[in-house]
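Researcher: Please translate sequence to structure tokens.
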Amino acid sequence: MLNNKVIWSIKSECGPSRDKNEDSVYPHSSGKSMLPFKAGVFDGMGGHRSGEIASKIASETMNKNFDSLDLYVTEANKEILNHQNSNPETYGMGTTMTVIEINEDLLLKIAHVGDSRCYVFSDNKLFLLTEDDNLPENKNILTQALGTKEKLNIQTRDYKLKKYDTIFLCTDGVCNEISDEYIKNKLGEGISADTLIGEILIQEPKDNLSAIIINVM
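Model: Translation complete:
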């Protein structure tokens, strides 16, 4: 009988140079549960109107139940586009969406659009499981995001986890401030999302910061 569970910590913080936090996270607070488990990070497009609304719409989609993880992304994109049609003043808003689901057999499923990231820390090695959707010559420009077009090229991936592996989800405000080596070392120490974000805030980062650290037990 399988009895795997996850313990997770979550932190989302407004960057010191930002007026508001346009990031959203799912779930909204730290906790623990038996499997299956869903989680995600959503980075509302900075410099655009109502980015925080777009990321919130995407995060709330995770409360629904779909058979396939990419359908959450498709549904969130449709709802954001519909919101813009009904509220023209929000036209141009968008969000990244990086979501995961872990089933009872420790199969990690990923669906991803944008430049937020999903890592797995396993056997003291760090693996980046998503590719950033941005221009190679300008990392600040996304090639796609929810709310910007009807047809998205959704990245999907499966990864077989082991007991005691750690999944790390973050918005680009986090990974732009720290290196993969730093992430690997901190996950190896068993850091919480709250402590990690606190350390980055000391550096006076330019962007909002959101992270989820999920430990498989």
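Researcher: Any highlights?
Model: The chain has a mean pLDDT of 95.
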